[in-house]
Structures are given as structure tokens and as C-alpha cells.
DNA sequence: ATGTCTTACGGAAGACGTAATAATA
DNA sequence: TATTATTACGTCTTCCGTAAGACAT
């Protein structure tokens, strides 16, 4: 059963003219002739009575046409419907957020839900220590993360904000009262390290081991989550770098957050697995992108 | 819409295993992977969630499958039905006979009708002067003729008999009383010629212009049909060669038929247009062939 | 470590166009 | 004679297998 032949048969049975059929199918008349010959051989009988002047369906051709047409249309429709469904944004989209549901996150989700009422958002927390695991495991469809991300199997999308870092320290720490500190001063504060399967560059970005100019920063233990880290901070075991909105979210009396100058800003954005990109993922990125445009 | 991809999708959605799918389709697993990737790109979304250990349909894949299956089966069935119909022997077959409906012809038709009661035979006379015109014009589906026939667009089938020629002459002709005559003696009898669109070799076979050894045979006028020829014979304008059964059929008091020795026998057989071969034509040839086998 | 899906690459089948040919009205 | 279907032949796409790679269990 050769599809091209069937397609050609259906067109020729409408046109009853090889040249016009060829035109409609973007073929040469000779090719149409070949295809019909081939189909007739396959079927085992003539489907058209043709001279160089007239083309007519044989009785068998008539029956075959009537038999074939509905199924052919059904097939084409099934493919069209699947394409449409693939473009459709419905069902549930599972969105990962990085440790802390800041306003940027909740605002993005609200914007998406307003724009696509047919699609429900399921928010899933992603630990700092493993920012891409749930993406790759298919447990979330798209995730908020810190840009840039350079993993070959991931794509990054909209960037939502560019915000400064703050250093969380115990209120009893000498820096607790400062209005701000420079990045180079981090060399004097042991930072809480990040454990887990996150790639090296990710761990280095959240808890750098050197200042921008290269001075080593001491390390104070390893934690897997923001809450664990803050607990260590409250116990005055070290400092922890958080972006400003996250710091604001976690404000508490026993911790003081001091703005840090001289560090590249923290960029919140979206990432997803390239091979698992769906219409909903594209739509979420698109909706978030629009919000980001306005807020930047 | 690529057919191979759809076919592969349907099999893979049953097997949920690339290697087994490849086996069923006589393909390599790699090719199956390519095809599915291509289909998913075409649709715009994943149809299977797969790792190297597990293959499962996505929700979209499930819907696509349910949507596609009936139309695909319908298509396959339509082709099957057409193939079956092409093999079927029903309706009307138009059979041409050459000038004279001898017993070989009527016997063949009866044999075919007995064997294929669903197919009606319509007998059409074909003039000696144009043995292939009605075949080529599509006015008959198959025709009795004299073998061998060497026309590029025609096929020959069963040979029914091999019979000697007889020379029809007026009862007043000197040869009228003879028990038989040799082929060389034709040089002394003007033969009635054959007019019309028949090829040269055909006219030469029915009214040769030379004896087997090469002696010229005089010509006595031109006619288009057997009856016209016999009229000329009765008027003693010349002789006419007929095969024995035809001579017997046309026995009349004013004409004497004298067996001719030394000529290759007349062979009655079937011919049809190669491009217009149908199941009925094949069946007719087959049925006649069986009769011929018994009678030879 | 093994079974399974995916990717890269090269060879071969066949899809297609061009142009000459045959046939009809 | 003009129009149209068919055939022959060369080119080029793409189909497909092989084999190596990546990944999950």
C-alpha cells in the first residue's frame, strides 16, 4: 500500500486530467502516469480508462474511490487533530520553583493562569542542591532557575529579573549592622556550602569559593536547602548569599541581610528539557516573558 | 503526512518496544527511532515517553492512536477489497470470434460459462479483414484469432486446435473433384485477396501470394469478409483458403472444399490487449486452455 | 554489566523531472 | 495538427542498515 499512489488516485479521480493532477500535487505528468500504473499493478486491474484525450474511472475505480475517500479523509483529519492538540495548551503544567516562591514566581504563575484558563499550574519546589533533577526526571515540565544555564539537554527561556545579592549573617555577626558590603569582603566570611548533585558551576555561583578578584572565601559546612542554610546562619556558623527577594521572603529576627555590591546580579529565569518541550511549556515561557518585559 | 511514520507509530504503540517494532516492519531499530522522531516533529509534540528501558504512550499519543486506528484500518481494507474485486470474475466479458463461430469457439464459451456462472459472455463477430481493431478499440475484451500473433501491444493465450486448410473453389472449377491438392498447386489457382486494415503478415497468411517453395500465386480481387469471399468463389472468380472447421461450417452446394496438404496448420487461439488484461480475461484464457488441453 | 534507544555515516533504492514518443480528436 | 498520455533515462533525494554511542536498570 503506497500512500503517494492513493493520494494521486484521489486527485486524478477528481481532475480526470494528468497534467492538472500533476500541478496540484507538485509533480510532473509523467510521474502521475507512473504512480497510477504502479497502483493499478498493485490492485491488479485498471482504475482509469484513458486515451490521450479522455480519462474516466472504470467501474472498479468508482467503487475504489467511494471506498477509499472516507478513510483517507479520516486519516488526514486524525493528523490535523493531533497537530492542533499539540499546539493546544490545556491540562496540567508542572512548574518547578527554586526553593523560595518569590513574587516573581507567583506573579508569573498568575499571569499564565489568566492568559490560559484551560491549563492548571501545579507548583513543585526544587531544592537548591539539585536544580535540574526534577526537570530531567520529568517530574516538572518547566522550572524557575538562575540564569545563565549551560546544560546541553536544557533550553532556557524568559529572564524575569536582575536583582542584587544579600548576605545573610547572624545578628550577632560583626557585619550584621552594615548598610552594605563589597564582594571582596566575602573573603572574611565563611560561606555555607551547597551539597548535592548540582553541577560544580552552580554550587560555585551560589556559594563562591573565591571573590571576583580571586581571594579565597572560607567554607562553613554543607547544606542541601535554603532553610538548612538559614538555620546554620542563625547559629552564626557562617554567611549565606541570597538574592534580595529571597532574603526579603525569609526575613527573621535572628538573621540580618546585608546588601552585597560588586557581584554580578542574580537572574531568575526559566529552563526546560529540550526534548520534552510542549505547547504548554512554550506558552508558559511566552506568558512569563511578557510579564518580564513589563517589569524590567 | 508520511504513511510509513503512521504505520510505524501504530505498530510501536502496540509493541512499546523499538526492536520488536523494527522486526515486524522489516526495519532496523534505528530506522524506527528516526521515523518516530520525524512523526513527533511533524505533529509538534511527543507521542511516546521513552527512556532506553521503557516506552509508553503520552496522553496525546493515546488520543492520536484512538483517532488514527479506524481510518488506517479502513484504508487498508479499501485496498484489500479493491484487490479482491480485481481478482473477481463477474459482470460481462465481450469475446470476439473470427468470422465463423466454429465448435471450438462455442465449446470454449460454454466451458467458461460453466466454470464462471457469475460472468456473462457477449459474443462479437470480428471481420477477417481487421482481426485486432475491436480489441484495440476496447470493443471486445478478448478475441479468438489465428496464432501466432506478433503484435507488441497484444498477448496471446491458449491455442485450441491445429487444423488443416481446405481450398474453397466453385464446383465448376477443374480442382472441384480432387480428394486433395498440394500446396504448390496453389500457384495455378487465383486466390481471393483480403482487403482492410489487417497487417501484411495476416493478409499473407490467409491469402498467400507465394507457395511454400516461392512460386507466385495469382490474386483474384479483394474482399473484407468470409461471406464476400465465398460469394466470389461461388462465381468461380477464384479460390479461398479456409481452415477445415470453417469450411465445414460454410458447406454449400455451389462450392467444393478440397483439403490442401503441405501448408502449416491453422491454429486457433486467444489474444487480448496487454494493458487491458482483467481477471475475466485471465479466467477466460484459463478456462479455454483447459478445454484445449483435453481436446489436443 | 547488559539490554535498549539514539546518532552518525555511507550505500542503494526509487522518486522525480526532462524530453522524446505515441496516440487521439 | 494540437493536445495529452506514456516511456526512457539521468539525477538526486531519502530511505535504510551498520556500528558506535548514550542511557537506564
SSE topology:
The structure is a homodimer of 296-residue chains.
Chain A (H helix, E strand, L loop, with lengths): L2 H13 L2 H8 L3 H15 L4 E3 L4 E3 L1 H29 L3 E8 L4 H13 L3 E8 L6 H4 L5 E6 L6 E10 L1 E6 L10 E2 L8 E4 L5 H7 L12 E5 L2 H9 L5 E4 H6 L5 E7 L4 E8 L5 H17 L1
Parallel strand pairs in A: 3-4, 3-5, 8-12, 9-10
Antiparallel strand pairs in A: 1-2, 5-13, 6-13, 7-11, 7-12
Helix pairs in contact in A: 1-2, 1-3, 1-4, 2-3, 5-10
Chain A binds a DNA duplex (25 and 25 nucleotides) through α3.
Shape of chain A: rod-shaped
Q: What would the average pLDDT of chain A be, to the nearest integer?
A: 89
Tally of individual domains of chain A: 3
User: Regarding CATH, which class of the largest domain in chain A?
Assistant: Alpha Beta
> What's the end-to-end separation of chain A, in Å?
58 Å
Structural class of chain A: alpha/beta
Order of helices and strands of chain A: HHHEEHEHEHEEEEEHEHEHEEH
Name the helicity range of chain A.
40-55%
Largest interface: A-B, 38 and 38 residues
CATH superfamily of the largest domain in chain A: Periplasmic binding protein-like II
Give the beta-strand count of chain A.
Answer: 13
Give the DSSP E fraction of chain A (strand runs of 2 or more residues).
Answer: 25-35%
Strand order of the largest sheet of chain A: 4-3-5-13-6
**CATH architectural type of the largest domain in chain A:** 3-Layer(aba) Sandwich
How would you classify the quaternary structure?
A: homodimer
Are there runs of chain A of 5+ residues with pLDDT below 50, and where?
none
Q: Main β-sheet of chain A, in a few words?
A: 5 strands, mixed
Amino acid at each position: 500500500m503506497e500512500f503517494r499512489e492513493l493520494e494521486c488516485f484521489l486527485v486524478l479521480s477528481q481532475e480526470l486530467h494528468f497534467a492538472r493532477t500533476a500541478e496540484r500535487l507538485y509533480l510532473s505528468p509523467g510521474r502521475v502516469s507512473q504512480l497510477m500504473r504502479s497502483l493499478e499493478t498493485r490492485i491488479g486491474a485498471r482504475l482509469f480508462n484513458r486515451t490521450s484525450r479522455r480519462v474516466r474511472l472504470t467501474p472498479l475505480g468508482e467503487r475504489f474511490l467511494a471506498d477509499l475517500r472516507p478513510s483517507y479523509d479520516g486519516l488526514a483529519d486524525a493528523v490535523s487533530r493531533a497537530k492542533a492538540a499539540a499546539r493546544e495548551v490545556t491540562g496540567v503544567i508542572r512548574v518547578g520553583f527554586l526553593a523560595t516562591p518569590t513574587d516573581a514566581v507567583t506573579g508569573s504563575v498568575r499571569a499564565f493562569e489568566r492568559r490560559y484558563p484551560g491549563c492548571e499550574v501545579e507548583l513543585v519546589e526544587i531544592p537548591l542542591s539539585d536544580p535540574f533533577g526534577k526537570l530531567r526526571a520529568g517530574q516538572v515540565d518547566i522550572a524557575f532557575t538562575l540564569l545563565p544555564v549551560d546544560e546541553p539537554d536544557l533550553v532556557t527561556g524568559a529572564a524575569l529579573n536582575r536583582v542584587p545579592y544579600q548576605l545573610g549573617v547572624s545578628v550577632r555577626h560583626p557585619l550584621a549592622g552594615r548598610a552594605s558590603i563589597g564582594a571582596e569582603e566575602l573573603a572574611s566570611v565563611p560561606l555555607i556550602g551547597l551539597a548535592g548533585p548540582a553541577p560544580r558551576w552552580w554550587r560555585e555561583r551560589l556559594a563562591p569559593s573565591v571573590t571576583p578578584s580571586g581571594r579565597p572565601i572560607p567554607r562553613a559546612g554543607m547544606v542541601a536547602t535554603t532553610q538548612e542554610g538559614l538555620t546554620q546562619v542563625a547559629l552564626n556558623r557562617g554567611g549565606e548569599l541570597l538574592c534580595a527577594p529571597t532574603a526579603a521572603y525569609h526575613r527573621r529576627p535572628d538573621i540580618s541581610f546585608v546588601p552585597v555590591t560588586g557581584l554580578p546580579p542574580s537572574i531568575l529565569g526559566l529552563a526546560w528539557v529540550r526534548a520534552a518541550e510542549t505547547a504548554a511549556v512554550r506558552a508558559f515561557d511566552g506568558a512569563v516573558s511578557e510579564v518580564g518585559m513589563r517589569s524590567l
